[in-house]
Amino acid sequence: MTNRTIELTIRSVLFVGALSGSFASQAFDYSVSGFGTLGYSYNSESDLAYRRDITHPVEKDSQGSFGIDSNLGLQFDGNFNRQWSATVQLLLDKSVEYNLDTLTEFAFVRYSPNASWDFRAGRVGVSAYAAANSRHIDYAHLWVRPPQELYGGVVFNSLDGIGATYYSNNPDFNWQATIEYGRNQQNGEIPISSEEYSTDIENVFSLSLEADKGPWKWQVSYAHIGSLTVDHGEGVTALQQGIEGLANNTLLASFFPNIVADANLASELVTVKDDQVSYFQGAVNYFDGTWTLQSELFQINAKKESVPQGYGGYALLGRTFSNFTPYVMYGRFKPTTDYYQSDQDWSSIGALAGAQAGEQARQLQHGAGAAINSVRIDQASYSLGVRWDVSSQIAIKAQIDHVKINPYGYGLWASSVEDISQSMDVQVYTLNMNFIF
């Protein structure tokens, strides 16, 4: 959503209010609330940096940081009458850039004609995950942050588009169905080079079905990205163009057909443009005031093998003792594609094109492998934590994560290219204070 789109959304709020006559006939009801986290995280490896999700910039050589989880959010909710309302949520956290667009998490108008239907337009939330609408509100959860295996690789938390929800309002077995459609754009940063990139997703369709009965709550959902495109900066673009040039060299194809064919495959894998991705999810939650059980499973499918994909999930179990709730959690992301490995020596073209061309080809081959494998995800985490509810608005949490990263599975971390071929065990220590107001 551009700044202009956000401005038009806010103007539409005022227009709806004028149409409904709410300003003239009745008081305009509104509320302002907020949330935030002040936290510090430290990991045990000096050449590896933890990331809350892949859109957050980090310093690769920084073992500890206040920027991983710390944030501040402000939400405005306004009701014009019983049918029309609006919500704007602003979120300040560590980001690649700061402007009205990146600060605006949600900005939508809601129309509720009756107790069964809810329609939204603007920057709306995505219901494809259990914590999608509250992934940044850490106070709302036991954990210090959403499990990295699932939420660390999700690049969209909202859509610029429309959404609708149907509520059954059944007291015996309540359920609701939600559908959303729209687009999203996120900026990120490559940890090794600090080069920025842009992820554009178009024609996103999301469908979710939720049900609850007593202390139990269930959810199944499906989301489909019709077009995923990643636009890189000068460095990666130059790499892509160099590989493409080698792949399209007809002269070299006559003498080195296997190398050119290998370069064609690498060129296809290193470029993400108009690719499709599908997400399947199922979740269950149990809370009776004492025991908490929470689990979420997922499957990610993509046509292009270089797009991170696989299956996994997490499970959390907690037990409340007065104001303290200790918990344990396990998370897993298992890829369904193998890592990229070339069986050709591109530098061999130097025998025909010269030593300099051979060295350039070698560098292109190395860059292709690094670019493709650096985003692949393959890891498991074991977590132990405790939450202390200091008051009704403040919670202090401590969590220890033991993460097992498998070879070529460092896609959720900031690491050097040389390290990704080896497995690694990492400990992450976090102390956070969450608050709402």
Number of DSSP helical runs:
9
- Average pLDDT, all residues: 91
Order of helices and strands: HHEEEEEHEEHEEEEHHHEEEEHHEEEE
- Rg: 24 Å
Which of globular, elongated, flat, extended, rod-shaped describes the shape? globular
Number of distinct beta strands = 19
Strand order within the widest beta sheet: 1-4-5-6-7-8-9-10-11-12-13-14-15-16-17-19
Q: What is the assembly state of the chains in this entry? A: single chain
Low-confidence stretches: 3-8, 10-25
Largest sheet: 16 strands, antiparallel, barrel
Proportion of residues in β-strands: over 45%
Helical residue percent band? 10-25%
Distance between the termini: 27 Å
Class of secondary structure makeup? alpha+beta
Tally of discrete structural domains: 1
Write the layout of secondary structure elements.
Layout: H1 3-20, H2 22-25, E1 29-43, E2 48-49, E3 64-65, E4 71-79, E5 84-93, H3 100-103, E6 104-111, E7 117-125, H4 148-151, E8 158-167, E9 174-189, E10 196-213, E11 216-232, H5 234-247, H6 250-255, H7 257-270, E12 275-287, E13 291-302, E14 310-319, E15 324-335, H8 350-353, H9 355-373, E16 377-389, E17 394-410, E18 414-415, E19 424-436
Antiparallel strand pairs: 1-3, 1-4, 1-19, 2-18, 4-5, 5-6, 6-7, 7-8, 8-9, 9-10, 10-11, 11-12, 12-13, 13-14, 14-15, 15-16, 16-17, 17-19
Question: If you had to describe this structure to a student in words, what would you say it looks like?
Answer:
The protein has about 425 residues and is an alpha+beta fold. It has one domain (about 40-70, about 140-155, about 165-205, about 210-435). The protein is about 20% helix and about 50% strand. It has helices at about 5-20, 20-25, 100-105, 150, 235-245, 250-255, 255-270, 350-355, 355-375, and strands at about 30-45, 50, 65, 70-80, 85-95, 105-110, 115-125, 160-165, 175-190, 195-215, 215-230, 275-285, 290-300, 310-320, 325-335, 375-390, 395-410, 415, 425-435. A 16-stranded antiparallel barrel has the order 1-4-5-6-7-8-9-10-11-12-13-14-15-16-17-19. A two-stranded antiparallel ribbon has the order 2-18. Strand 14 (about 310-320) and strand 15 form a beta hairpin. Helix 7 (about 255-270) packs parallel to helix 9 (about 355-375). The protein is globular. Mean pLDDT is about 90; it is low at about 5-10 and about 10-25.
